[in-house]
Amino acid sequence: MEDKGFHRNTVNQSVRFALVGLLNTAVDFGTFFVMVRFLHWNVILAQSVSYACGILNSYLCNRYLTFAHRNPPKYSEILKFITLNGVSYGISVCGLSMLRKLLWPLVLCKVASTLVAFVVNFIGNKWWVFRNTKHNSVAHGGE
């Protein structure tokens, strides 16, 4: 019985995590295009700021919505989050590059590398960054 609650909680969290990811992408793209098209910012500066906005949105939404943490954030948690996102980014870039060398179509390379990075990022957030047995176990109510 506990396995069903844990599984349901993990599935619910992964769905919320994916939805937050879509929102992060919208924040990133929206911020980028506003800065470039309307504010006439340099593309590289706009990319840096918009990516940072997406990461900030990711941290806040995943912390409070996906993994339901209510306690104040700790410096170590933020550092873990940044580290994990750097690793996930590296995985996506390496995967994309390797699959392109195998002559996969670009869209399949992008989808496959994004899916692998998504799984690594979700697992890292659930069991490392936002690890809290109260919130990541059946005790969370099994949602």
Brief overview:
By secondary structure, this protein is mostly helical. Helix content is 78%, strand content 0%.
Verbal overview:
There is one protein chain. By secondary structure, the chain is mainly alpha-helical. Residues about 135-143 have low confidence and may be disordered. It contains 4 helices and no strands. It has one domain (about 1-140). The chain is globular. It starts with a helix and ends in a 14-residue tail after the last helix.
Structural features:
0% strand; single chain; 143 residues; globular; mainly alpha
Question: Layout of SSEs?
Answer:
Blueprint: H1 2-38, H2 43-66, H3 75-101, H4 106-129
Helix pairs in contact: 1-2, 3-4
Count of helical segments? 4
Q: Proportion of β residues?
A: under 5%
The total of beta strands comes to 0
Fraction of residues in H or I helices: over 70%
Largest sheet: none
Note the gap between the termini: 14 Å
Query: Rough shape?
Result: globular
The assigned structural class equals: mainly alpha
Q: Low-confidence runs (pLDDT<50, min 5 residues)?
A: 135-143
What's the overall average pLDDT, rounded?
89
Rg (CA only): 17 Å
Number of domains: 1
H and E order: HHHH
